[in-house]
Amino acid sequence: MGVLNATPDSFYGPSRAKAYASAEEAVDRMLASHPDIIDIGGESTRPGSLYISSDEEINRVMPILKIIRRKSDIPVSIDTRKAAVAGICLEEGADIINDISAMEDDRAMADLIAEKKCYIVLMHKQGTPETMQDAPAYNNTVEEVFEYLKSRITAAEQAGIQKDRIILDPGFGFGKTLSDNLQLLYSIGKLKELCPLVLAGASRKSMIGEVLDEPVEDRLTGTLVAHTWAAIHGADIIRVHDVREHVKMKKMLIAISGQGTVYGTA
Q1: Which positions are catalytic?
Q2: Which of 29, 50, 68, 250 is most buried as measured by Cβ atoms within 10 A of its Cβ?
Q3: Number of domains in the chain
Q4: pLDDT tens across 68-101, in order?
């Protein structure tokens, strides 16, 4: 899942469409890197970021969505927690709604997803993007995230959303310490007990910067290691800024795992 941000302030500059001469060039570069899914975000949710209006978010996202739909039938995900934004984007051809609030911030979201029968990403976060990293705290990080996502699956099913349309995201960096993030990454396969589809998105995040003592520009190696671990241990979708490098990672993992035998056995 390649990240294409229609924001002026997302934490990794090259992911912003504004980093290119035009939105069309940004889309062309993304398509040329051969992602399986494109995720468009119109509202930054990095730590300290503020809520924006539905109208502003739509105005940011819609031009990029229309360009993609004119050029490709690739599945498109819309990173939004607002039903108004999700609704108009689904009408314009989006396939997935990626909701960092797990449909809690806008109670109309669940009915919309049930009606449209599209895919929905339910993510765990503690607090809001504005304050979530001030003092995150858990008694048992993995169990609490697991139980929260279990409750959101129940809420989704009660709203009429089929489980095979649900994707779970543990929410790396969303109200978590480094230790919390590493525990969740290590245990990501546990989420498969709840739902067939799991998403991992650690791309260039501060958890990698803290481990390696590297700025965001130099976190590609750490990102690839984290995402390789996630893919081996159960993640079905990897949300990334560096698509080309992750496509190569995927190709290698498929080649290795497709050998069909374990060394030393028949």
Answers
A1: 205, 239
A2: 68
A3: 1
A4: 999 999 999 999 999 999 999 999 999 999 999 9
